[in-house]
Amino acid sequence: MSADIINGKDLAQELRANMKEEVSQLVQMGITPHLTVLLVGDNPASKSYVKGKEKAAKEVGISSSLIELPASTTEDELLETIIQLNNDDSVHGILVQLPLPQQISERKVIEAIDPSKDVDGFHPVNIGRMMVGEDTFLPCTPYGILTMLKSRDIVIEGKHAVIIGRSNIVGKPVGQLLLNENATVTYCHSKTEDLKELTRQADILVVAVGRPNVITGDFLKEGAVVIDVGINRLENGSLTGDVDFEDAKEKAAYITPVPKGVGPMTIAMLLKNTIKAAKGLVSVE
């Protein structure tokens, strides 16, 4: 038996087609959703991500602007720019591309963004609302993962979800979203003892460790759902995930590929959050 592949690229394309229709209706009402992206420095990976976001926004009719700042930008200069965008009514969504140069505190920058324009879903107010199950902007990658699971009618309630990785961007929030859907959630990380014993119990396994092919088929329970968040570039230039895809797909019921898996869904959810912000659906006092 070989796993059913959940193709994030195809699903994201479907979602964008629906969003295009939604944006078109908003434009007719005089509202053009606008996303502003802040890019500090010239990290090639960041530039590539930003280009992908701009292209996807254009496809669905969301207007976007890019503010590029030099790597020497001070924390105060960046915070001042964010305050200006917070006060600009024509800007619905603000995204600061991470990572930031050393001299700038990511925490301070994230906290400076108006929570009602925080389309990345990282502001503590939005994370808090997610924790208690209130409507809010969900972090894009975890939101994309949840959307992928639901697109295949995969049962989450009552299932054991194991998350490998505990970052604030993916690991912690994806576990919380699955908990909100009534899964039983276990977090694993670099200090976890006997990782394999825990992963073999997982009905749903989410892997976000940033190391190529560390999870092989013998880490899996037969018929598990495997979500691979990793994107690793090998020496030959090819991309691979954190999961050994060829080995794991023989044991899993469902699996996401790399590329064409979680990555395209992250951008699709960013657009979805931007549309939500333009509609003013999240009011954060």
UniProtKB/TrEMBL annotation:
InterPro entries: Aminoacid_DH-like_N_sf (IPR046346), NAD(P)-bd_dom_sf (IPR036291), THF_DH/CycHdrlase (IPR000672), THF_DH/CycHdrlase_cat_dom (IPR020630), THF_DH/CycHdrlase_CS (IPR020867), THF_DH/CycHdrlase_NAD-bd_dom (IPR020631). Residues 139-279 form the Tetrahydrofolate dehydrogenase/cyclohydrolase NAD(P)-binding domain. PROSITE patterns: THF_DHG_CYH_1, THF_DHG_CYH_2. Residues 6-120 form the Tetrahydrofolate dehydrogenase/cyclohydrolase catalytic domain. One of its GO terms (molecular function) is methenyltetrahydrofolate cyclohydrolase activity. Catalyzes the oxidation of 5,10-methylenetetrahydrofolate to 5,10-methenyltetrahydrofolate and then the hydrolysis of 5,10-methenyltetrahydrofolate to 10-formyltetrahydrofolate. GO terms for cellular component: cytosol. Its EC number is 1.5.1.5, 3.5.4.9. This is Bifunctional protein FolD. Gene3D superfamilies: Leucine Dehydrogenase, chain A, domain 1, NAD(P)-binding Rossmann-like Domain. Keywords: Amino-acid biosynthesis, Histidine biosynthesis, Hydrolase, Methionine biosynthesis, Multifunctional enzyme, NADP, One-carbon metabolism, Oxidoreductase, Purine biosynthesis. HAMAP family: THF_DHG_CYH. It catalyses: (6R)-5,10-methenyltetrahydrofolate + H2O = (6R)-10-formyltetrahydrofolate + H(+); (6R)-5,10-methylene-5,6,7,8-tetrahydrofolate + NADP(+) = (6R)-5,10-methenyltetrahydrofolate + NADPH. Pathway: One-carbon metabolism; tetrahydrofolate interconversion.
